[in-house]
Amino acid sequence: MDNQLVKPEILMQQVGLIVLAIILVIFLAILGIHQWQVSDPYIRAVLTLSGDPIQGHAIFQMNCSGCHGLMADGRVGPSLKNISDRKSDIGLIQQVISGKTPPMPQFQPSHQEMADLLSYLKSL
């Protein structure tokens, strides 16, 4: 029997295909989670709207600044600077409306108000 070594080019192709398959599986898993989360009619409606960050800032000042600070830099609640780097749009909406993180109250603005607030939060 002839012992043949696998050529480096073939090995690299096989490794590349495995990496590509892993990336595809991860992408499909994320897409599945995303699809599940967007099944919420409120979130789905908010995500279809364009938000106005100026209006969002006004909503923030009236409802959020008491805990998160006038400049969203934190007080009782955490700083929201660069929050969109840490949370997705869906995650931000869920955080605002859920009230699951005491002492943050449950808050469910209209679809447009939430789109405006989301736009402001993403601008921080």
Order of helices and strands: HHHHHHH
Percentage of residues in strands: under 5%
User: How many strands, what sense, and barrel or not for the largest sheet?
Assistant: none
**With helices defined by DSSP (H or I, 4 residues minimum), what is the helix count?**
7
Brief synopsis:
The chain is mainly alpha-helical and 124 residues long. The chain has a domain at 41-123: Cytochrome Bc1 Complex, Chain D, domain 2, CATH 1.10.760. It has helices at 8-37, 41-47, 53-63, 65-68, 83-86, 89-98, 111-123.
Model description:
- By secondary structure, the protein is mostly helical.
- The chain has a domain of 83 residues: Cytochrome c-like domain (Cytochrome Bc1 Complex, Chain D, domain 2).
- The chain contains seven helices and no strands.
Q: What does the secondary structure layout of this molecule look like, with pairings?
A:
Layout: H1 8-37, H2 41-47, H3 53-63, H4 65-68, H5 83-86, H6 89-98, H7 111-123
Helix pairs in contact: 2-7, 3-7
Summary keywords:
124 residues; mainly alpha; Cytochrome Bc1 Complex, Chain D, domain 2
